Amino acid sequence: MPPTLILLRPRTPETDGAPLPLQPASLDIWDRKYRLRDRNGNAIDADLDGTLERVATALAQPEDPQIRDRVRDEFLWALRNGAVPAGRILSNVGAGSHKPNTSTINCTVSAPIADSMDAILARAHEAGLTLKAGCGIGYCFSTIRPRGAFVSGAGSYTSGPLSFMDIYDRVCATVSSAGGRRGAQMATFDVGHPDIADFIRAKREDGRLRHFNLSVLVTRAFLEAVEQDAPWPLAFPLDPREARDNPGHLQDPSQVLWRDWPIREGYVTDPDGRVACKIYRTLPARHLWDEIMRSTYDFAEPGFILVDEINEMNNNWWCEEISATNPCGEQPLPPSGSCLLGSVNLTRFVREPFTERASFDWDLYRRVVQVFTRMLDNVVEINGLPLDDQRREIQRKRRHGMGFFGLGSALALLGLRYGSPAATQFAETVSRTLALTGWREALALAREKGPAPIMDETFTVTAAMLRKRPEMAHDGWKVGDPIRGRQLHARYSRYMQRLASLDPGLIESLTETGARFTHHSSIAPTGTLALSVGNNASNGIEPSFDHHYYRNVIRPDRKTKERMDVFSYELLAYRALVDPDADPAVSLPPAFVSADTVSPREHIAMQAAVQTWVDSSISKTINVPTDMPFGAFKDIYRLASESGLKGCTTFRFNPTAFQGVLVREQDLRNTRYRFVLNDGTAVEARGDEEIEYDGETHTAANLFDALKEGQYGKW
Fold first, then answer.
1. Which of 313, 324, 370, 427 could share a disulfide with 140, CB 3.0–4.6 Å?
2. For position 155, what pLDDT does the model report?
3. Can you give the C-alpha Rg of the chain in angstroms?
4. How many distinct structural domains can be found in the chain?
5. SS3 523
6. What element of type H or E holds 235?
7. Distance from CA of residue 616 to its chain's centroid?
8. Are 81 and 344 in contact (CB under 8 A)?
9. Residue 479: DSSP 8-state
10. How far apart are the C-alpha atoms of 116 and 125, rounded to whole Å?
11. Alpha-carbon span 293 to 296, nearest angstrom
């Protein structure tokens, strides 16, 4: 263990060493979401530092008793200096008898949903247990046969995957309502499924699937078809009985496609494990592409997941086929996989901000990442996951996702404009430093405590492995040879090969010893963490949404969301250090950008620079102006795919479709909402106007949204 470093107070960018007071919105989030209370509502954590002490003490428990106290002090030091575990860790770890049945894991991915009623309902039951434990969950629903397909066992026609998604949505709504925390779910769907158009349009219906994020699994083959203006077949696995009755169809490419599929059991397969899929219909690829883009333009969904890139770059490429992600998309996961998350607050390492001497403390950053890596690894031992398969999966691979937040805020403190070449280079260095530090600690922990169990497992070389990694054959491997997981992971994963260009000796040592975990990095959106613990430092790798805006907050005693004022961290720091009267609309330095003033090309360049050294994925939203032409909007996704991103999400303010969590005053002021009363009278109001209704005062925007979505009075 390195020598213990303990600071009695957090190091902050303020020149006098005093931390900025948390703004009311930040204190409110910490108090409601992360502060431990007993069953009667009495506070257990005296203050935010009390929360950090509880977390450090609990996460040191898996350590050897002889070093436990020393490690606990190191953990507390890291927490006070910018290490921020994910929300389920902050709120649940060390909770003891107060919350005995909750998990320290933010999100999971469901086991595959087989195409049978038993399997669909069994997965819904497992989802309920997972949500009850406080975890979000992701699913791939394209394994369910399309609407109108014949079910021979029942002698009827299926209602399709979207109807079953409605069941999962209600499970989530019911469980989250009972537990007091809004549930989070992600539904992914293959771009080649016959019901893809229904999936794209699903959330246009008011109130439908509101506990889901939606993303399309986009393949390279589909993008090539779009580029070539080629036809695109929509297909689903052929019923084996139909194959027996019409064996000639298997050799007819106009009727059957052979595709990789998440589930092979019960289907017709070829020697390569591909599944025979019946072609239901064919349509122009560009027509489908435009439909995806138009929905994303108008409704901000579905998202866009480049599934081939995800599987190509997966560290566990030889034993996982990924088709689902956690609810925000930063963790592509195998069946029953979990995302164990944490982020480093980058604003904590800026020295002498807003001056020509502004700098980033790289030594302190590396030390915090090193200690934080050990801390997150310990969460595996106290995961609290509700299902056996989930516990086996996390213990076998020990994957976690460390990222950062406050990038946009830190850049403003340093005087760098988000999206500029200098800012892009800084972001790449932050990501690369986190990766190298984390994997060096992975080796040290493996030597001290042992590698992840999968590293010691023996696998058999297959023809599929040699096709995916031709360099294995060049190294002398043949079909049937035994090979250790540590070799497949360190020597042949594309990501680890990239790290070898920086530190070849590290990769050689990991090949020999094995790593403590299979994955280390992931950039989460960190919305309420950045707002609470980070005093509204910018989310994830984003620039600040704005420097003064409103946050719509769900209150259990209100019938609509409550609007709260929020200020960016950099504005608070600038007012504290430079100009106490600084007006965000008038007098801020050029580096003070907001999300919608950064061009899509700059957003993508920043994400691509960071993704190079992130072994999982990145949750990022590209905010675009409401008046951006549709043609220009579509180019964002083309550029994202060309830049090697694993996914892409955009947000364009559209008040007729939805009301977001974060809202700019100007958008509300410029939007008019129309209410029709029982007597037929129509009343119009600006979005920021207050309306008295049903004994409460609401903003027009929040009231309109709650009534439209059928959520009025359900908060």
1. 324
2. 63
3. 25
4. 3
5. strand
6. strand 231-237
7. 10
8. no
9. T
10. 14
11. 5
Q: Peptide bond preceding 302: is omega within 30 degrees of 0, i.e. cis?
A: yes
Q: Are 320 and 463 part of one and the same domain?
A: no
At 640-665, the pLDDT tens digits run 989 989 998 888 877 665 555 566 66
In a domain, 287, yes or no: yes
Q: Is residue 217 one of the residues assigned to a domain?
A: yes
* 462 in the same domain as 314: no
- Is residue 233 within 8 Å of residue 285, measured between CB atoms? no
Rounded to the nearest angstrom, the gap between the alpha carbon of residue 628 and the centroid of all alpha carbons in its chain is 26
Question: Checking phi first, is residue 688 left (phi over 0); if not, alpha (psi -120 to 50) or beta?
Answer: alpha
Q: So what's the pLDDT on residue 364?
A: 98
For residues 531 and 552, the answer to whether their CB atoms sit within 8 Å is no
Q: Pick the closest to residue 565 from 673, 706, 662 (CA basis).
A: 662
502 in Cβ contact with 509 (< 8 Å):
no
Q: What are the DSSP E strand ranges found in 28-114?
A: 83-85, 107-109
Report strand pairing: 136-140 vs 107-109. parallel
Helix pair angle (362-379, 421-449), 10° resolution: 50
Nearest to 317 by CA among 491, 504, 444: 491
Confidence check: pLDDT of 156 > 80? no
Which class for 537: exposed (0-12), middle (13-18), buried (19 or more C-beta within 10 A)?
buried
Residue type, 593: V
Domain membership flag for residue 486: yes
Q: For tokens 């007091």, name the residue.
A: 180
The whole-chain average pLDDT of the chain stands at 90
Element housing 548 (H / E): strand 548-553
Rounded-to-integer distance, Cα 676 and Cα 420, Å = 48
DSSP 185: E
| Non-local CB neighbours of 4 within 8 Å, separated by 6+ positions | 70, 73, 74, 77
Helices 421-449, 600-611: crossing angle, 10 deg rounding? 30
Contact 215, 305 (CB under 8 A): yes
Task: For 602-645, give the DSSP string.
Answer: HHHHHHHHHHTT-SS-B--EEEE-TT--HHHHHHHHHHHHHTT-
Q: SS3 of 432, please? A: helix
Of 319, 515, 359, 358, which Cα lies nearest the Cα of 435?
515
Q: Are residues 290 and 151 in the same domain?
A: yes
Residues 315, 463, single domain; the answer is no
Q: For position 555, what pLDDT does the model report?
A: 65
Specify the higher pLDDT residue, 146 or 694: 146
Burial class (CB in 10 A: 0-12, 13-18, 19+), 460: exposed
Picking from 280, 305, 325, the residue at the C-terminal end of a domain is 325
Confidence of residue 245 (pLDDT cuts 50, 70, 90): confident
The values of phi and psi at residue 521, to 5°, are -125, 150
Query: pLDDT digit string (tens) for 256-267?
Result: 999 989 899 999
Average pLDDT over residues 100-113: 91
Comparison of pLDDT for 149 and 659, the residue scoring more: 149
Name the percent of the chain lying above pLDDT 90. Answer: 70
Sorted by sequence, the CB contacts under 8 Å of residue 229 that are 6+ apart come out as 284, 285, 286
**Which parts of 549-597 fold into alpha helices (H)?**
569-577
As a whole number, mean pLDDT of residues 68-87 equals 97
Over residues 27-53, mean pLDDT: 94
The SS3 call for residue 92 is helix
Q: For residue 463, what are the domain limits?
A: 455-513
The one-letter amino acid at 251:
Q
Is pLDDT at 15 greater than 50 in this prediction? no
Residue type, position 619, single letter: S
Asked if residue 612 lies in contact with residue 428, where contact means CB atoms within 8 angstroms, the answer is yes
**Can you list the alpha helix ranges (DSSP code H) found in 319-406?**
362-379, 388-397
pLDDT at residue 517 is higher than 60: yes
Is there a domain that residue 56 lies in? no
